UniProtKB/TrEMBL annotation:
Range of residues in the leader sequence: none
SMART domains (alphabetical): CAP_GLY
Family assignment from sequence similarity: Belongs to the TBCB family.
GO CC annotation, single: cell cortex
GO biological process, one term: cytoplasmic microtubule organization
GO molecular function list: microtubule plus-end binding
Annotated organism of origin: Dinothrombium tinctorium
Subcellular location: Cytoplasm
PROSITE patterns per record: CAP_GLY_1 (PS00845), CAP_GLY_2 (PS50245)
Name of the protein described by the UniProt record: Tubulin-folding cofactor B-like protein
CAP-Gly domain ranges (all copies): 176-218
Lineage: Eukaryota, Metazoa, Ecdysozoa, Arthropoda, Chelicerata
Protein keywords: Chaperone, Cytoplasm
């Protein structure tokens, strides 16, 4: 076969971020045969193996049919691309790479310190960070959820709309984290006794108000503005 009949691929495993290999395989290799070769490289059993194919940042497909050839899953322009940048992400739905552990009782992998590994730009860790996968997506969402907004401040007038409840007006009394649920909550002192508490929940006081005048809502349910106090008759009409 000439060079154009081979594909250079990057091989990593989802179950062990220390694996990283550059390999060349015939472009027309059957998926079943490819799995057998990758078992020797990754330690993931061929019978359990799943393979996701990426081209650059884009996930192309999952190699499911053992009888199909590798190039049948790829477009002609990717196969002919000189730089190709094809990445095979190998994993097992059953967890760790069991072949090396079960047959040899060892972990067949090159060890790096955590600091050295984090500096590599060609690792699975870098791949997940770039695409915000796994724990990196969770960290991103957590940061967004726990950021206190600059435009919601204690003392501001507000209007609260929660599905299944009447529209209520009040004053912002607290903005921040709470002990009762994660994330950012806004404590509101309502103009009328349509709340659930007096500014305290489960024995923890967040602000002061009369019983049934206090409540906590998510940021998405509150609107800041110069709202006038609603009369009780208007609120009852909305019920």
């Amino acid at each position: 076969m000439n060079d154009s009949s081979y594909l250079s691929v990057k091989v990593t495993t989802e179950n062990d971020a220390d694996f990283f290999y550059e390999k060349r395989y015939p472009s027309n290799i059957a998926i079943g045969d490819l799995k057998a070769k990758l078992e020797l490289v990754t330690g993931v059993l061929a019978s359990e193996m799943k393979i996701d194919v990426y081209h650059g940042d884009e996930k192309l497909c999952t190699l499911l049919d053992d009888n199909r050839s590798l190039n049948s899953y790829l477009t002609a322009d990717i196969v002919s691309d000189k730089d190709k940048d094809i990445h095979l992400l190998v994993y097992s739905p059953y967890g760790k790479n069991r072949r090396f552990e079960e047959e040899f009782g060892i972990e067949d992998r090159f060890k790096l310190t955590e600091e050295e590994y984090e500096k590599r730009v060609d690792s699975l860790l870098a791949f997940k960070m770039k695409r915000k996968l796994g724990r990196f997506a969770e960290v991103k969402n957590k940061i967004i959820e726990e950021t206190v907004p600059n435009d919601v401040k204690v003392g501001q007038r507000c209007r609260v709309r929660v599905k299944g409840n009447p529209t209520r007006t009040g004053t912002v009394m607290y903005v921040g984290k709470t002990n009762f649920k994660p994330g950012i909550w806004v404590g509101v002192r309502y103009d009328e006794p349509l709340g659930k508490n007096d500014g305290s929940v489960d024995g923890v006081r967040y602000f002061e108000c009369q019983p049934k005048y206090g409540g906590f809502v998510r940021l998405a349910d509150i609107e800041i503005g110069d709202f006038m106090e609603q009369e009780m008759d208007e609120l009852l009409e909305e019920l």
